[in-house]
Specification:
By secondary structure, the chain is of the alpha+beta class. The protein has 9 helices and 13 strands. The chain has helices at about 5-15, 35-55, 85, 150-155, 160, 170-180, 195-205, 225-235, 240-245; strands at about 25, 35, 60, 75-80, 95-100, 105-110, 115-120, 125-130, 130, 145-150, 185-190, 210-215, 215-220. The strands form 3 sheets. The chain has a 7-stranded mixed beta sheet with strand order 3-4-5-6-7-8-9, sandwiched between helices. A hairpin with a 2-residue loop joins β7 and β8 (about 125-130). α1 packs antiparallel against α2 (about 35-55). The chain is globular, with a radius of gyration of 17 Å. The protein starts with a helix and ends with a helix. The model is unreliable at about 240-245 (pLDDT under 50).
């Protein structure tokens, strides 16, 4: 295990200790998104630890550094992915962090405290609670998939005509982790927030999967065939958006 990965694992485990059953929930915007005090507290804790150990690295994070862009050496942080689940006592949420060196992700973790599942990866492969994991080999008629993110409704419309095996957990971290561990066959995150998809895509890739990135299209799949199907049928063009919205 690399030193970068060891640092991330200890980081997210310690960050999770800040959480208890007493939390404050506020509206993050006028579109129904929520934020809790733990989103801010965990993110601050992680940022402080990174600055102590990686002073020359920049940081991209959901609450405090959302406008930052990728640099040669940086971290992405999502303090609580699935905040709405968390705020409603649904255990489908997680803490996820990725370390990027020389423009390449070198280590990533997704920690699901309520499920007691720690997914992580570096150059040595992908693991769940210390055990190696890999993507499944299911075809489109058997594999589960998910389309997540603010653009999910339009993005999943065509895919539903191909397969109805869609699952909605409203948590990108879980979706990517489940692809890496073979529970899902593919997931598409339909938005461009780096902290949501960078850690998970890396873990999937190290578990033998494939990834694809374009504007507001961030896919991880078990194989190229499933990826192409997801890519083709969850990418909605501007004219199609107009028609569907009407």
């Amino acid at each position: 295990m690399s030193k970068d990965l060891e640092f991330l694992i200890e980081l997210v485990k310690n960050a999770s200790l800040l959480i208890d059953d007493e939390f404050e929930v506020k509206a993050k915007d006028d579109k129904g998104d929520l934020v809790t005090n733990f989103d801010y507290e965990i993110e601050k804790f992680i940022i402080d630890k990174i600055k102590q150990n990686y002073p020359d690295f920049s940081i991209i994070s959901e609450e405090y550094n959302s406008n930052n862009e990728l640099t040669d050496n940086c971290f992405t942080i999502d303090p609580i992915d699935g905040t709405i689940n968390f705020a409603n006592n649904i255990p489908l949420w997680g803490i996820q962090v990725a370390c990027i060196k020389n423009r390449k992700t070198c280590a990533a973790v997704i920690y699901l405290p309520k499920l007691n599942e720690l997914y992580y990866a570096d150059e040595n492969g992908a693991f769940l609670n210390g055990n190696p994991i890999s993507v499944n080999n299911y075809a489109i008629d058997k594999g589960l998939y998910t389309v997540e993110g603010p653009g999910k409704m339009l993005g999943s419309f065509k895919m539903q005509q191909i397969s109805r095996h869609c699952r909605d957990f409203y948590c990108a971290a879980i979706n990517f982790a489940y692809v890496a561990s073979g529970r899902f066959s593919a997931t598409n995150f339909v938005w461009d927030t780096l902290w949501d998809y960078v850690p998970g895509q890396f873990i999937v890739e190290q578990a033998g999967g494939v990834i694809y990135n374009d504007t507001k299209i961030h896919i991880a799949a078990n194989n190229e065939s499933f990826l192409e199907i997801i890519k083709k049928n969850t990418t909605i063009k501007d004219k199609e958006q107009i028609i569907l919205k009407k």
